Amino acid sequence: MVTICLLRHGETAYNADGNRYCGRTDIDLTDKGIAQAHRMKKLLKDFQFDAIFSSPLKRAKNTAIIASGKEEILVDMRLIEVDFGQWEGKRAEEFQLEDPQSWENWLSTPEHFRAGNTGETATEIVTRLNSFYTELLDKYVGKTVLIVGHNGINRFFIASQLGMPLKNYRKIVQENSALTLLTLSKEDGVHLLKLNA
């Protein structure tokens, strides 16, 4: 079993500006996002991490550095945010008006349709996350790790591990720089202990 502190990065300018879709755009934290990461550092002070992982995007890396108080971050490309294709940088109400069918497709069957027509499918997302977490289980049994990722990938991982239909991933809310605490084992899968602490 591995104990995982799973974070979403702190607030970015895209989050603050009507929650624009920020997949692969590499923008940094706002002042509020930095403050959120410092709050998380206080919340995590009693944890001893055997490893700290982050998405390669600087909003996640900087959250990981601040929240852990350490510079030694293991960056893994499999933790990068969802490729949102043509939705990137837009608010939901904007792209829903431009192409309502692609949004309906994504909401109903994200396993088979690409986000923003040219992005990833939910199946591709979960496949790369399963690769990361399987490797984590092989290397860190009995350990505690911090993982800083993104809203989309974290929710897809949790939904898939809890046996939810992937189209329901949006029903899970993960706030900026909030703690999700879980355990993961080969025998029992995920046990979700805390959400948005």
Automatic annotation (TrEMBL):
Catalytic site: 9 (tele-phosphohistidine intermediate), 81 (proton donor/acceptor)
Species in which this protein is naturally found: Sphingobacterium nematocida
TM segment ranges: none
Domain of life of the native organism: Bacteria
Entry binding sites for substrate: 8-15, 59
GO cellular component: cytoplasm
Name recorded for this polypeptide: Probable phosphoglycerate mutase
Gene Ontology MF terms in the entry: phosphatase activity
InterPro entries in alphabetical order: His_Pase_superF_clade-1, His_PPase_superfam, PG/BPGM_mutase_AS, PGM_Phosphatase
One Pfam family it belongs to: His_Phos_1
